[in-house]
Amino acid sequence: MYDLLVRDADLLVTMDGDDVPGGWIAVSGGTVAAIGGPGAEPAAAKTLSAKGSLVTPGLVNTHQHLFQNLTRGNAAAMNVDLFDWLKALYPMWAGLDEEAVEVSTYVGLAELALGGCTTSMDMLYVHTGPNFIDAQVRAAQEVGIRFHATRGSMCLSQKDGGLAPDSVVQTPDEILADSERLVDKYHDRTPGAMVQIGLAPCALALVTPELMRDTAELAERLDVRLHTHLSEVRAEDEYCARVFGKRPVEVFEDVGWGTDRAWVAHCVFPNADEIRRLGQWGTGVAHCPTPTLMRGAGPTPVPELRTAGVPVGIGCDSSTHSAHASMWLEAHTALVALKGRSGAGAISARDVLEMATTGSAACLGRADLGRIRVGAPADLVVWELNPVAFAGAHSDLVEAWLRCGPVQARHTIVQGAPVVESGELRLPRLDDMLARHRRISRRLQGLAG
Ligand SMILES: [Zn+2]
Predict the structure, then answer these.
(1) Where is the Amidohydrolase-related domain (predicted)?
(2) How far is the CA of 232 from the centre of ligand 1 (A)?
(3) What is the pLDDT of residue 320?
């Protein structure tokens, strides 16, 4: 008797071999125990129907700032460039405390689960109090989503000629000590790990080269992953030219980050030689099309990066004017943006699904995720193909999935447990958390009540 049976999918896409019409998946002890086609379905303690649905591996989010859902849509930060957006929001984020971090993480991960995400990273780089990442891990464990917290950092502030107020940055010693504490406390190295920790200086313009180098050395010693923003806006090119006399990717290499231990967010402006070097290093790229398009920077050169051997994943980012946390929506936007940039034949929905599953898992260093495979963690999504929105879609359900809709998850299953079931989050404290989120977000934005 298995723990769970997901049965009768219109199409099961495992990303690990052939697609299976009418497919089923049996789960035992949090891992995939058996996969099959119509008939011969085994018995299980619990059964979920996938009739009228597409089943895929759970989507993996490679770039996120969950705390920013506390200030989304704030009028002072709309319709401006990245650096002005940051300057408008830093004073609000300076009011973050441990409760604000826990509640925003909980709500953000719940939103991600509704959009078919089963594993998310997060990059929290404002530490105005202690134990913020501890609060995030608590929230992730309660929601039940697989979580890769990265210990974000900023050490340059306005007194150094930087963008951030002095109150939201820390010293390199504080950052490195807390990074090591968090890895010791939470980083799980076993296959199927639910929590891992990475190290994430925010961007070249927000930390010193010494902190970048020390962080890379610490990651090497602790054997954890590295993450940062790289080549996100033209202003970063100008900053690196002025301060270092170099391009961002050159500085990145100089400080010891040219390695397959690192993955970076955005990477919109690499030249041909830099793309080749990123491929040689095996450094991954998180493609987050909405924020880069919103800033007028255009999408990342994904076809060229993939051809060069760069692992490319999808990330929501949630730091833009739209600030959603739906991996389906970001994958859809990636399809549209990359066709707009590179032509109709440059990318398919299947390519984007591959990026959002196996590509993203590679960025996070998780070879055990991204595929539905016997023995792998049972992370999968049952996508309901709404009969109105999908009327007429018969020949290629993966292409239809990313073009029709919008689509939300009918069931989101992580480690064999439904986080979303029949379209509903299974979170008893959700209403309480949303009420707290409203109170905290209004406080940070200086609004009454
Ligand atoms: Zn970001």
Answers:
(1) 54-395
(2) 9
(3) 64
Instruction: Give 386-421 pLDDT, tens digit per residue.
Output: 999 999 999 999 999 999 999 999 999 999 999 999
Ligand 1 ion: nearby residues, β-carbon < 5 Å: 317, 319
For residue 406, whether the previous peptide bond is cis, meaning omega lies within 30 degrees of 0, is: yes
The per-residue pLDDT for range 156-166, each reduced to its tens digit, is 999 998 888 89
Q: What share of the chain is helix, strand, coil (3-state, %, to 5)?
A: 40, 20, 40
Q: What are the Cα distances from residue 105, in Å, to 66, 135, 206?
A: 5, 8, 23
Distance 65 CA to ligand 1 centre (A): 6
Ligand 1 centre and the CA of 64: distance in Å? Answer: 6
Cα of 37 from ligand 1 centre, angstroms: 41
CA dist 65 → 58, 98, 412 (Å): 20, 15, 21
Distance from Cα 174 to the centre of ligand 1, integer Å: 22
Joined together, the tokens standing for residue 42 give 């085994």
* Domains of the chain by start residue, with CATH: 2-57+378-422 (2.30.40.10), 59-363 (3.20.20.140)
Nearest to 283 by CA among 306, 258, 313: 258
Distance 23 CA to ligand 1 centre (A): 37
Closest listed residue to residue 89, CA positions, set 155, 154, 164: 164
How many Å lie between the centroid of ligand 1 and the Cα of residue 317? 5
Centre of ligand 1 from the C-alpha of residue 360, in Å: 15
What are 73's two structure tokens?
């849509």
Alpha-carbon distance 72 to 226, whole Å?
27
CA of 125 to the centre of ligand 1 (A): 10
Is residue 362 within a helix (H) or strand (E), and if so which, with residue range? helix 360-363
pLDDT tens, position by position, 23-63: 999 999 999 999 999 988 999 999 999 999 999 999 999 99
